[in-house]
Design a protein that fits this description.
Elements lengths: L2 E14 L2 E14 L3 E5 L6 H8 L7 E6 L2 E2 L5 H11 E4 L3 H4 L6 H11 L4 H14 L15 H13 L5 E5 L7 H17 L3 E6 L10 E6 L2 E7 L2 E4 L11 H6 L5 E7 L2 E7 L22 E12 L6 E12 L3 E5 L6 H8 L7 E6 L2 E2 L5 H11 E4 L11 H11 L6 H10 L15 H14 L4 E5 L7 H18 L2 E5 L3 H4 L4 E4 L6
Parallel strand pairs: 3-8, 3-9, 6-7, 7-8, 16-21, 16-22, 19-20, 20-21
Antiparallel strand pairs: 1-2, 1-4, 4-5, 9-10, 10-11, 12-13, 14-15, 14-17, 17-18
Length: 513
């Protein structure tokens, strides 16, 4: 097989006023025509940067990216864009961002083909065929904004394939989905790519994504670390002989920060040298104080909400009742499309219920007009949606400062940095948001919400793009905010790390509170 993608000694370094931030450090990768490769790794490891470089959206600092024989890294921006439009299909982390909300599902899938000059009739035939393959032919005339998360993602996959690209790049395509829906999407991508002999690169923090690929590569600290083929794992030797030892190997061997190495035949032996003891041993994180507890922050009474008209009308929330207390963490759970995001928007006063009552701190937010709900929200509620709404050309510190100014408050740099440090962004506080990974952006949005010290914090899938270690850290952080500050946190999630820490779980699949 010939190579569809060849990445050679790729470096991407972001230059900032505060210093250089390397994202990729000497990555080399070949993907054969018709091959599916999964790139896995933790938040901030360089996965999305690698995908953007392959797509021609990121200009390398050094090294080359060749796609279908064209060295994209040496093309101008216009030529890269034209090449991408013709030969590459992209599935974004946020399906809603790539699908025009006012288009029908059929037209959204056909859009790229139409832009390339395909006739309307031919583009619609292709779109109808793809929608039928993914079980959504009945929704062809529906507006994309009316779809559930899982449906939107399937439509986004169809839209990426409709112009018959040679290569499909998918960036965390299941970040917004529950486990069952995520497995469906991964299987769908693999099946559709293989039926068209298209090459695919899928990046994810979820190791389960690798089950549908021909091989998997793990990336860490901007370098490829491991390769897995048919269940066999090999360490990747990078430029200059770099090898990253797995954490479990280093722990088992009790390796310090220095090793000696020797070779016998094709074996390399590493021997650890004891590390110098630190002057002050690391201190454990103090336990959170007891729950502050008592008052009701939010009360839901038989809340219902539907969308659409006539036969297309769909119930999003059905008869939900619950009381959320100060200082507690509540998890909204349910399959993708069960109404979790809708319920958060109702509580925030962004939309009104069809029936029932919603009170926040004793005020009937469901009866307020747009201006009244906005003023109430500004003083009481912080909302982190899946569309993070960060300003990409500002740093995390500047995003926090701007958000507080919009709220009519001020925040000093120390408070901003302390809040960012609490979500693990100590070293990234002054870098531009557009240079952060998806997980780092998500943590920035959480920090921006926490900086306001709201009485009620609403968060939609805060760990969907984070690896397990960072998901645990976010779960601990949310619980700590509840306990220390008396904040009520309502979190829409399918993550067991959050659910295990919750004081109350509202299951929207069963419509019980």
């Amino acid at each position: 097989m010939t190579d569809a993608i060849r990445v050679q000694n790729l470096f991407v370094v972001y230059r900032t006023a505060y210093g250089d931030a390397p994202s990729l450090q000497g990555v080399s990768l070949d993907v054969a025509a018709g091959e599916i490769v999964c790139i896995v790794g933790p938040s901030g490891s360089g996965k999305s940067t690698l995908l953007r470089a392959i797509a021609g959206l990121e200009v390398p600092t050094a090294g080359d990216v060749t796609v279908r024989g064209t060295v994209l890294s040496r093309q101008g921006e216009r030529d890269r864009g034209a090449f991408r439009a013709r030969h590459i299909g992209m599935v974004s982390q946020y399906a809603a961002d790539t699908l025009a909300p006012d288009l029908s599902v059929r037209d959204a899938v056909a859009l790229q083909s139409r832009l390339l000059g395909t006739t309307r009739a031919a583009a619609h035939r292709t779109a109808d065929g793809l929608l039928d393959e993914v079980g959504l032919s009945a929704l062809g005339t529906s507006r994309t904004r009316s779809l559930s998360g899982g449906e939107r993602q399937r439509v986004a996959v169809c839209a990426a394939l409709a112009h018959d690209p040679d290569i499909v790049l998918a960036d965390e395509p299941t970040g917004e989905l529950d486990v069952a829906s995520a497995a469906t999407i991964h299987e769908l991508i693999g099946r559709l790519l293989r039926s068209r002999s298209a090459a695919g690169v899928i990046v994810s923090h979820d190791a389960a994504a690798a089950a549908h690929a021909d091989r998997a590569l793990s990336i860490a600290d901007g370098r490829l670390a491991e390769e897995q083929i048919d269940g066999r794992t090999s360490l990747v030797v990078g430029p200059g002989g770099w090898v990253r030892l797995p954490d479990e190997v280093r722990a088992a061997a009790a390796l310090g920060d220095r090793v000696s190495a020797d070779a016998t035949g094709n074996e390399v032996r590493l021997r650890g040298r004891p590390s110098e003891p630190t002057a002050t041993p690391p201190q454990p994180i103090p336990p959170s104080p007891p729950r502050i507890a008592t008052s009701v922050v939010t009360e839901l009474d038989e809340v219902t909400k539907s969308f659409g008209r006539g036969t297309a009308r769909r119930t999003a929330v059905s008869g939900i009742s619950a009381r959320v207390m100060a200082g507690t963490l509540t998890a909204l759970v349910g399959r993708s499309g069960s109404g979790k995001s809708t319920l958060l928007n109702l509580i925030a006063g962004l939309t009104r219920p069809d029936g029932g009552r919603i009170s926040v701190l004793g005020a009937r937010i469901d009866t307020l007009d747009h201006a009244g709900a906005s003023a109430f929200r500004r003083n009481t509620i912080a909302l982190v949606t899946q569309d993070l709404g960060l300003v990409p050309f500002l740093s995390p510190v500047e995003n926090l400062t701007l958000a507080m100014e919009i709220r009519g408050a001020t925040i000093d740099a120390e408070h901003a940095r302390t809040t960012l440090s609490a979500v693990g962004l100590d070293g990234r506080a002054d870098h531009l948001v557009e240079h952060l990974s998806a997980g780092e952006r998500q943590r920035t949005a959480i920090a921006r919400a926490l900086a306001a010290r709201p009485a009620l914090l609403l968060i939609d899938e805060p760990t969907s793009r984070l690896d397990r270690a960072n998901a645990r850290a976010i779960g601990d952080l949310l619980l700590d905010i509840c306990r220390r500050h008396g904040t009520a946190v309502i979190c829409a999630t399918h993550d067991d790390e959050i659910i295990a820490r919750a004081d109350m779980v509202i299951d929207l699949d069963s419509s019980t509170g």
